[in-house]
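Troubleshooting log. The previous structure file for this entry was overwritten by mistake, so regenerating from the original sequence record. Sequence copied from the archived sheet and checked twice against the printout by T.R.
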Amino acid sequence: MIKPTFYARVAVMAIAGLTAACSDEPETGSAGAAETAGLPDTVVGTASWDDHLQRPIHRVQCDFEAPFYKLQAQGHGFELTVGFWGDEADRVSEVDFEQADSVELVQVTPEEEIYRYTTLRILPEMGQVSGSETSASGTTRLRSTSLAALEEYRNGIELDFEFSCPLSAPDQAAES
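Regenerated output below.
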C-alpha cells in the first residue's frame, strides 16, 4: 500500500519542477548556487554531461537534515545536488541510499546564462544514481527545466558523475 507521505513527496517535487520549468523570466546573472569564487584546489570528484568533458568537483557539502538528505557538489560554473528521502530514518545510516530521489544540475555559462536540469524521481530506465553518507555517483538523464536549457537542449542531457563528501560525522550532524 502506498503511504500518504508518498503523495506529499510527489506533490512537493512536482510543484518545484513546474515552478522551475514554467518561469517566464530568463535566468541570468550569477546564481548563488553556482558561485565558484574561493573554490579549493583539491578535486573531490568529476562530472560530465552532453559534451563529455570531465569537469572537476572542488567542494562538496553534505546536508543531513531530516527528512531530505542531500549532497551538494560544486565545480567552476556548476553545482550538482543529489537528494535522498529519509523521512522514516532516525539516523543518516538508516537512509536508503540505493537510488537517489532527485538530481539537479545548475550550470552558469561565461555569459552568465543559467542552465538548469532536474529529475525528480529516477526510474530504472533513467539510470542509476546511488550514494552513501560520504559519496554519490551515477549516470542519469536530466530534463531541461530553465528557458536557456530548453532552447539549447530541449530533451535534456545525460549526466555522469562521482564525488565524495569531506570527512565528518554525518550521524552526529543529523542527530543534533
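The radius of gyration is 16 Å. Archived copy saved in two places this time.
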